[in-house]
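Reviewer comment 2.1 asked that we show a complete input and output for one of the modelled complexes. We chose the pyridoxal-5'-phosphate case, as it is the one discussed in the main text.
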Amino acid sequence: MKFETLAIHAGQEADPNNGAVMTPVYLTSTYKQDGIGKPRQGYEYSRTLNPTRKALQDCLAELESGTWGLAFASGMAATDTVLRLLSQGDHVVAGNDVYGGTFRLFDKVLRRFGLDFSFADTTDPENLAEALTPSTRVVWLETPTNPLLSISDIRAVAATVKSHPNKPLLVVDNTFATPYLQRPLELGADLVVHSMTKYLGGHSDVVGGAIVGKDKELGQQLAYLQNAAGAIQGPMDSFLVLRGIKTLPVRMERHAQNAEKIAAYLAQRDDVAALYYPFHESHAQFKLAQRQMKNGGGMISFVLKGGSEAAVRVAEATKIFTLAESLGGVESLIEVPAAMTHLSTQGSPLEVDPGLVRLSVGIENVDDLIADLEQAFGS
Ligand SMILES: *Cc1c(COP(=O)(O)O)cnc(C)c1O
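Response of the prediction step:
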């Protein structure tokens, strides 16, 4: 079956008891057993597994071309669970433009547990090769990155990672692209991580995270950690993401159509010093983006010539674009990463330009969105 069909049906079937078309929200913590050690259909306790969460997990597995999926309370909970595969002394190489919260978890929290991190420019696999050490167990990749939307060649990075003697795991945070635009497991990644809070949920009404993979043993280890540490996604939130995913393909098409037009509008403005949109011809990896992704997605960043002051002024003046953190919902959002989502990177090598503005382009009418930006710019 094709992606659009899987998005609506994978992991889900009409309820065998009453025919309910939508997967019920199973608000139960425990399950009746037919005898001691005889749970029905494998359900014993909802931290371990819940039918609503299972439907979402199975759906995610199919959409990402994996064989298993795990749903968590947030993207960070999913990230944290992957890192729990490691032991004291293990080393992780991450992209130097990763999500601010990922950087914070790695650098400020997990270092205290004896894990070691370095950050490299993964857009060039040679840089990555140099950052690998004999202790490297995980390579953490984001593409497109947040907030600069730079693109790494997943296939090339996978080749570099696999040629290293201790075969580190390649983990790709696929939050920005979603499986509709790119499927890292098909390109050699071992694990895909998501913040489902963003495009998968799609309506800014739920927080969630996921890990998807192909290798069975790795799946068992991570399911063990999911149950042991317990940062699971609840049944109501799993239902909301499952519902959001049904429209993922149509939403992603409209996000990208709108974003392409807004990128073209920004590119011809004199007060824009730099534009970052993967499918705009000015993008440093335009060709790679076109090869690797189905479309350019809904995220755009740009630097204003007026610096921080101008960025703040524009972000505070829009009326349809809501000033807010997060991204990936049907409504358009605007933010200034240096002062908001990426504040924790201040003073670090990951620090972002204070004049940078990030847009999460929604699925409203694009003429209204451009008119809103125009009035915010003041001309
Ligand atoms: C938001 C985000 C996360 C963290 O996810 P939460 O659901 O907020 O915990 C991780 N990676 C990327 C790329 C994100 O945008």
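The chain has two domains: 3-245, 248-377. We note this here for comparison with the apo prediction described in Section 3.2.
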